[in-house]
Amino acid sequence: MEPVAETNGGQGFVSGGRRKSGSLWGGSRFQMPLHYPNYSKAEYEAMPECQLDRLLSEYGLPVAGDVAQKRRFAIGAFLWTTNR
User: Sign of the C-alpha dihedral, residues 19, 23, 28, 32?
Assistant: First the structure.
């Protein structure tokens, strides 16, 4: 009988008692912060780049690109369609 793959309390997948290295997102370690960001579209558009970088990195999201790309990404990721 072959071992069954199962999750290990958020520590990755295990198979036959061994933890498989890596993660599902190419090595990224996504971690959900305690609070969902609650900014308006206007606040994202006025947010300084360093704050955008910190916000995106808290969620394990990419921080590459210029400030306009980061703003568009944050608006798309964190705002519901009714808030845009």
Answer: negative
Calpha distance 57→52 (Å, rounded): 8
Q: What's the average model confidence in pLDDT over 2-20?
A: 48
pLDDT band at 82 (very low <50, low <70, confident <90, very high): low
Same domain, 37 and 18: no
* Total count of domains within the chain: 2
Question: Given this model, what pLDDT does residue 59 score?
Answer: 87
Q: Are residues 16 and 35 in the same domain?
A: no
> Comparing C-alpha atoms, which of 81, 83, 32, 19 is closest to residue 61?
32
Distance CA 46, CA 1 (A): 59
